[in-house]
Amino acid sequence: MTHHDQDFAQRRAGAAAPPPFEFRVKGRRLVSTDTQPVDLATVNGLKTGEIIAGALPFEDSHPARLWRGMVQEKPDITSPMLPDYRWILRTEPEGTDYIRAVQQAVGQMQASNLQKVVLARTLLARADRNIDLPALLTRLAADENATAFLVQLSAQTWLVGATPELLVETSGRTIRSFPLAGSLPRQADAQADRTAEKSLQASVKDLHEHRFVVEHIMDTLAPHCTDLRAPDGTATTSTRTMWHLGTRIAGVLKADGPSSLELAQLLHPTPAVCGVPRAAAMDVIRRSEPVRRDYYAGCVGWCDGRGDGAWHVSIRCAEVSGRDARLYAGAGIVAQSDPQSELVETRAKFGALLAALGCEITVHKDI
Ligand SMILES: C=C(O[C@@H]1C=C(C(=O)O)C=C[C@H]1O)C(=O)O
Hints:
Blueprint: H1 3-12, E1 21-25, E2 28-32, E3 50-56, E4 65-72, E5 87-92, H2 95-111, E6 116-127, H3 133-140, E7 147-152, E8 157-163, E9 166-171, E10 174-178, E11 180-185, H4 190-201, H5 204-221, E12 225-229, E13 235-238, E14 242-246, E15 249-253, H6 260-267, E16 275-276, H7 278-288, E17 299-304, E18 309-313, E19 317-321, E20 324-333, H8 339-356
Antiparallel strand pairs: 1-2, 1-7, 2-4, 3-4, 3-17, 5-6, 6-16, 6-20, 7-8, 8-19, 9-10, 9-18, 10-15, 11-14, 12-15, 13-14, 17-18, 19-20
Helix pairs in contact: 2-8
The structure holds the ligand C=C(O[C@@H]1C=C(C(=O)O)C=C[C@H]1O)C(=O)O.
The site of the ligand C=C(O[C@@H]1C=C(C(=O)O)C=C[C@H]1O)C(=O)O has 18 residues, from strand 6, strand 11 and strand 20.
């Protein structure tokens, strides 16, 4: 038996527990070294080579989930093979209730100063045996345009996903952000896929949705930078399942500027996951989403003792516990939104996780 097979066989027997955190970023792995959680202040006492990493919640009512760890250049050897699970799926809220919430939000936009709100729904997927988290992470990491992450939230629960959205990254005084907003599902046919990309690029509604996010990030970062630029025009970017509008923001931090962790806290929640104005959008989210977001639409990432690090928006993810996965997906709603299209967009956003779980979305068309 090779080391690789042994590792897989052990895990199938349930011997190896998932680590408290692991990130996969373009061939590098960020791995936990301690099994005891740490708090935000731990960042001040880190030794060279150490990081803290984990998840920040959508709302402050939940604590940060952080652990100490290190960056490894070693590639991963975990097998991407999964057992052939049988699935039971249930959406929460049901599609009709999600559509009603979108209609109400659009109505509120006509009668108030609410301009954008991101409304999410969830999909409960129950397998016939425990979900193999390390294999799931390896499968999610196959998408080169996403950062795959696994973060322990409680004794039995992990947040796992693959996000394409970079909230903020700093290295010395160099700062970057890659906000996304405005989406269309990818198409299997190459010609149809290209048409989808072009129509997204030309969509006034999506460009409008996108602009809120770029403005928020520029306004929040500007006081901390000596130089900050967003390119003219918005580009498209893709994952294996979605097209998005994205803007590559780059700049130079002031000397003794905030750490990557502090910047993530300043920026969060952006209008990519909350809305404009923020307080009104938060109010709509709290009133119309029946399932609390917990760590979905928060941040996942890492920071070292000098403040360098990267924080991503925790989207395209699920909370996994034993046989159960709760998948989350949201869509930005503006006055011109069509509720049925927003439902389809959230369904497509479940696609990355479902594919990684080996659950065929085409078999479950009604989600
Ligand atoms: C909220 C999600 O995605 C966000 C919303 C987007 C949109 O509304 O177009 C696009 C990318 C993300 O910023 C999600 O995937 O759950």
